[in-house]
Amino acid sequence: MSASPRPDVAVIGGSGFYTFLEDPQEIEVDTPYGKPSAPISVGTVEGRSVAFLPRHGAHHDFPAHKVPYRANLWALRSLGVRQVLAPCAVGGLQVEYGPGTFLVPDQLVDRTSGRQQTYYDTGAIHVSFSDPYCARLRGHLLNGLAGQGPVDGGTMVVVEGPRFSTRAESKWYADQGWSVINMTGHPEAVLARELALCYATVALVTDYDAGVDEASSVSMDAVFQVFAEHTDTLKKLLSGVVAGLGDDRDCSCSHALDGMNLPLTLP
Ligand SMILES: CSC[C@H]1O[C@H](OP(=O)(O)O)[C@H](O)[C@@H]1O
Ligand SMILES: Nc1ncnc2[nH]cnc12
């Protein structure tokens, strides 16, 4: 098989999303942080070279708290990737965000603990993270979802897992005004920023989290089932967005490390 050109865009698939490309070339990559969750698939979508990585592994080998996030982002960058679309399954924290809702968050809250969340353990490297997602990629996702009534913005709280939240925890998150909850959005987003990558997520609500009302109680099966019902829509959306992206990054993400004295050489 002939080698695909270097991909500058990647899709990271989440729970229930393990394949994306037709006829991909699989590339084994190693990094200073170990191997990524799976070999990286590279193929073309409407003529554009695209990388795909299932964050939990090809067979959901890594639960959210064990995903090798640093290796995943490093490996993608080492292949040439500079723009990352990262769909995920989330629980709705507000009644208006029921199963089937697509939401493109603009903020996140980190409630994880103990995850390795930086590449920079020496020196003084402190990236700005006020706006954790690339505004340009968010715009592309929202345009692509126009027919699905997407929610533009909202806060995604990321919990450690692997268990789902108690009713009290969930109610507390909802009372803060946060929109949706998941387990993988951090440290993925900040590691992308630390590599000066553009990164945005599209969240598919698969369930009401436990605090939304007395009847709601999340189950893993329900998450997978609702996700499966919307997988085709999501894949079509991502194909369209990927095909329509420019490769001239007209946004601040590429400058995230400007002027910093990096203690390591980025791939
Ligand atoms: C399978 S239930 C919980 C699991 O689903 C979400 O995964 P992802 O964000 O990769 O779509 C959630 O974050 C948990 O990892
Ligand atoms: N309710 C929920 N809590 C945490 N992660 C999730 N992923 C999908 N639904 C979730």
UniProtKB/TrEMBL annotation:
Any one GO molecular function term: S-methyl-5-thioadenosine phosphorylase activity
EC annotation from Swiss-Prot or TrEMBL: 2.4.2.28
CDD domains: MTAP_SsMTAPII_like_MTIP
Pathway annotation from the record: Amino-acid biosynthesis; L-methionine biosynthesis via salvage pathway; S-methyl-5-thio-alpha-D-ribose 1-phosphate from S-methyl-5'-thioadenosine (phosphorylase route): step 1/1
Keyword Transferase: yes
List of residues binding substrate: 183, 207-209
Site positions per UniProt: Important for substrate specificity: 165, 220
Pfam families in alphabetical order: PNP_UDP_1
Coiled coil start-end: none
Domain Nucleoside phosphorylase: 9-237
Catalytic activity: S-methyl-5'-thioadenosine + phosphate = 5-(methylsulfanyl)-alpha-D-ribose 1-phosphate + adenine
Highest taxon in the source lineage: Bacteria
Binding locations of phosphate: 15, 55-56, 184
Enzymatic class: transferase
InterPro entries: MTAP, Nucleoside_phosphorylase_d, Nucleoside_phosphorylase_sf
Keywords (A to Z) from UniProt: Glycosyltransferase, Purine salvage, Transferase
Task performed by this protein: Catalyzes the reversible phosphorylation of S-methyl-5'-thioadenosine (MTA) to adenine and 5-methylthioribose-1-phosphate. Involved in the breakdown of MTA, a major by-product of polyamine biosynthesis. Responsible for the first step in the methionine salvage pathway after MTA has been generated from S-adenosylmethionine. Has broad substrate specificity with 6-aminopurine nucleosides as preferred substrates.
Subunit relationships: Homohexamer. Dimer of a homotrimer.
UniProt record similarity statement: Belongs to the PNP/MTAP phosphorylase family. MTAP subfamily.
Name of the protein this chain belongs to: S-methyl-5'-thioadenosine phosphorylase
Organism for this UniProt entry: Aeromicrobium wangtongii
Gene it is expressed from: mtnP
